[in-house]
Specification:
7 helices, 6-stranded antiparallel beta sheet, Phosphatase 2c, domain 1, 12 strands, alpha+beta
Length: 279
Amino acid sequence: MGQGNTLQFHVRSHVGRKRSTNQDSATVVPAETIKAYRDHGWLLIVADGMGAHAGGEEASRLAVSTVPDFYSRHEPQQSPPRALRQSLEQANREIHAAGERDLAYKGMGTTCSALVILPQGALIGHIGDSRVYRVRGRTVEQLSRDHSLAWEIAAASGPDANGAPPGVPKNIITRSMGPHHEADIDLEGPFPIAPGDHFILCSDGLSGCLSDEEIALFAAELPTPDATAALVNLATAPGSFSWWRQSVCLVRCSFGGLRNKASVCFEQGCLLAPLLRSA
């Protein structure tokens, strides 16, 4: 990716129609200089909290604030995969400690899926069932692996199995940040990036409502802000999976071929900016 390429991202979240608090959180940390891009890249995170009362909201908030903080501290000579894993592990310990200090947050947890955009490709660190997709043309690929009971039963059933058997709950996750002092983090990638690629990070409020193919269709055909609006509106429409019990969080970033474009525009979280800025 050359200096003139651009990354466009948009963050959209919805509390759902029946909840009073939004347990999903997201953040995007741009690389402000060429050196920052080479050393740290762009960091995008989605987290979906779990816990009674305010616990889930606090856990996801801590995840999206502490992971970037820890990740930004790693030295340039430290490899990004190792830095990302350590940042997620350290964030887990912070969330766990917060739950141990306050009975109101006892046992709180969160999923966390982090995408790092680097010169060598896309790197993913994740735990739980929040997903990272890459959409290329009309082809969609889930780059993360769900840490859920349904996913693991389907995987154990072999490649010919068509998902988990009927009756297996889809909302039971097998790994998360916060409940325990140590967390089992998965790393994936780096995955190659091509002009026109779209990356989507989302909670199960979206992936549990829409098929991968439906997500890819909107990502491929609509501009980034319109795509996020359409997907979240569908996920929270009356009668949908997320209407009464789920919040929805979606981050989409797209790579274009605009050259030497330095404009920045904000619209409900939208940013169009150079992927690399001069130091």
